[in-house]
Design goal:
The structure is a single chain. By secondary structure, the chain is an alpha/beta fold. The chain has ten helices and seven strands. The chain has one domain (about 5-260): Spore Coat Polysaccharide Biosynthesis Protein SpsA, Chain A (Alpha-Beta Complex). It has helices at about 30-40, 60-65, 80-90, 95-100, 115-120, 125-130, 185-190, 205-220, 230-240, 255-260, and strands at about 5-10, 50-55, 70-75, 140-145, 170-175, 195-200, 245-250. Helix 3 packs across helix 5 (about 115-120), helix 6 (about 125-130) packs antiparallel against helix 8 (about 205-220) and helix 8 packs across helix 9 (about 230-240). The radius of gyration is 18 Å and the shape is globular. The mean pLDDT is about 95.
Length: about 270
């Protein structure tokens, strides 16, 4: 059975207020309406779906999903994950850390917004929790960002996502190969190798993946370093190369799984 369960999450971290008048690039601003418009495309899929969110968004998500198989899990994001948020904020507020950031990259939220980093670092934890709570009935499970389908065309006209991913591997999508660059240089230059919007693995591998991610979060924090999920994904693949399978995607088009990894594609 190649049908894939989907886990995602959405929390309002104030991104609608990330505006140019505050010295931020215009492309960082995304309102809640933007996210729900994008999720509305993905919500058309018949796939089993688990969504972690705040109480205020439950009705909207339920309406978008209709009678499709969906578990909506309420999380008090503001009052949860204190330890992780503290770890991230401590590094971000450290003057030595700030001094090393490439000046052209300092506006990116991974360097100043702890909530942004926390949401991204929790992807494997959310999936593992859904598996632990027995909300997942398929062998394959994917994390997909809530706004993965930026356009309706991203769905590629499919109604159910199925693909025979190797269940012995954790599948991630990269835009370039690692060339031996120092991890610190990668962090401070925002040098992306592996994309974060989609990760696929079997139910058995997700808890192991969560453990690997958490160990690398600790490693970074212990060395006064921090980044969003993209660097953590790279570190994970480098430390356990036989566990991961990387699929190359274009630098200009990350959102291709429904087109290129779809059992029913033409």
């Amino acid at each position: 059975m190649n049908e894939i369960s989907i886990v995602t999450a959405f929390f309002d971290i104030g991104r609608g207020d990330w505006t140019p008048d505050k010295g931020l690039p215009h492309y960082l601003q995304r309102t809640n309406d933007t996210y729900f418009e994008r999720f509305g495309h993905m919500a058309k899929l018949e796939n089993e779906m688990v969504v972690y969110t705040s109480e205020e968004f439950v009705d909207t998500i339920r309406k978008l999903r209709g009678n499709k198989p969906t578990q909506i899990m309420v999380v008090d994001f503001e009052n949860s994950f204190e330890l992780l948020r503290e770890r991230v904020a401590t590094v971000q507020n450290n003057a030595d850390y700030q001094s090393k950031i490439n000046p052209s990259q300092v506006a990116n939220p991974e360097y100043w917004n702890a909530d942004y980093v926390v949401v991204n670092l929790l992807k494997s934890s959310f999936v593992s929790k859904a598996i632990q709570e027995k909300y997942i009935n398929n062998d394959l499970v994917a994390w997909l960002d809530f706004g993965y389908c930026r356009e309706e065309s991203t769905l590629n006209n499919i109604t159910t996502w199925k693909y025979p991913f190797n269940k012995e591997k954790i599948h991630m999508f990269n835009i370039k190969d690692y060339d031996g660059k120092n991890i610190e240089d990668i962090i401070f230059n925002n040098d992306v190798h592996i994309t974060g919007p989609c990760i696929v693995a079997s139910k058995d591998l997700w808890p192991k993946f969560e453990y690997i991610i958490q160990s690398h979060i600790k490693l970074l924090a212990d060395n006064n370093l921090m980044d969003d999920d993209q660097t953590l994904l790279l570190m994970s693949s480098l430390s356990n190369p036989n566990l991961f399978e990387l699929h190359r995607v274009s630098t200009d088009d990350w959102f291709v799984v429904f087109r290129d990894y779809n059992e029913d594609k033409d």
